[in-house]
Write a structure and sequence with these properties.
Layout: E1 2-6, H1 12-17, E2 22-26, E3 31-36, E4 39-44, E5 49-55, H2 59-69, E6 74-82, E7 89-98, E8 104-108, H3 114-125, H4 132-136, H5 140-145, H6 157-166, H7 169-173, H8 182-200, H9 202-223, H10 227-237, H11 255-272, H12 274-288
Antiparallel strand pairs: 1-5, 1-6, 2-3, 3-4, 4-5, 6-7, 7-8
Helix pairs in contact: 6-12, 8-9, 8-12, 9-10, 10-11
């Protein structure tokens, strides 16, 4: 079992001045760390976060550090994830809250205590949060390690619009794709296409997806009027031999070497259109949000 934490509401620079932590520059890994005892806190994304991944052996030491150094009127959390399985399982969300009078309250999030926790956090932050998971799920660190598991009841109209704004539609809603209607499938197909082309290129996407799915994507692009990418894909398909979608392994075929340069050009054109495409997706979602399936 591993635990993941963004150590929010702790002033590490002040702790450094007070010699409560040490600062370590790891040049070979191009990252910096703060160290206290046996625990290491790593800067994440240009010091946007101070994060930590630790084992259950360090829970007591970690909690002691957080309780001692958390600012009054604030909170922090750490999240379990069982990484021993082929498909890692998300576990409990642990929260540590320090009240204004410095009283410490500890919770393991569940349906029975979430409202109490939200009331405290909302009072501190002057916000109107409605779900702990929906607070944490937009943090890049947790999203990178896939440690937050949303529930169906988290997928509200407002949440879909927020995902749309932040470009995270595919990542958060993919587990619920079996419940998608045509409007949501259109967005899903296009955002999935963006992710897979970004990681493996258009030629590999076409091979992995198959002819039927590619045709569904083209229909979705037409529905959203994303004509430039529709035209790029249609142009690329003309270069493929008739047997392309019947290949068992694209990487064993001379076809890859023959088409590589042309498809690199297609990839570049697609990357250049990403922002324009996202704007069109956002317009489509906003215009059709009332037709989407969501729980509340």
């Amino acid at each position: 079992m591993n635990y993941y934490s963004i150590n929010r509401n702790i002033d590490f620079k002040e702790l450094l001045k007070e010699n409560k932590v040490n600062f370590i520059v790891l040049k070979e890994y191009e990252r910096n760390m703060y160290k206290s005892g046996n625990i290491n806190f790593e800067e994440w994304k240009d010091n946007q976060y101070i994060t930590m991944i630790f084992s259950n052996k360090l829970i007591d030491e970690y909690e002691s550090f957080i309780c001692s150094n958390l600012k009054p009127g604030s909170w922090s959390e750490y999240i379990e994830k069982d990484t021993s399985l082929m498909k890692p399982l998300q576990g409990d969300i642990h929260l540590i809250i320090k009240l204004l009078d410095k009283t410490i309250k500890k919770y393991i999030l569940d349906d029975n205590n979430e409202l109490e926790i939200l009331n405290i956090i909302n009072e501190f932050s002057n916000e109107k949060y409605e779900s702990i998971r929906k607070i944490l799920v937009f943090d890049d660190f947790y999203r990178f390690y896939d440690v937050i598991e949303l529930r169906k009841e988290d997928i509200t109209k407002d949440f879909i619009l927020e995902c749309c704004e932040k470009g995270t539609y595919f990542k958060f809603l993919e587990p619920f794709k079996d419940d998608f209607n045509n409007y949501q499938n259109n967005v899903y197909l296009i955002t999935e296409f963006d992710m897979e082309v970004g990681s493996g290129g258009l030629l590999n996407y076409l091979f992995q997806s198959g002819e039927e799915k590619v045709n569904l994507l083209l229909n979705a692009l037409k529905e959203l009027k994303i004509d430039k990418i529709d035209n790029i894909i249609s142009e690329s398909l003309k270069l493929l031999p008739s047997y392309f979608f019947e290949l068992e392994n694209i990487f064993c075929d001379e076809l890859v070497e023959e088409l590589e340069n042309k498809f690199n050009d297609f990839d570049t054109k697609i990357y250049e259109l990403v922002e324009e495409e996202q704007d069109m997706i956002n317009v489509y979602i906003n215009n059709n949000i009332d037709k989407f399936n969501y729980i509340y």
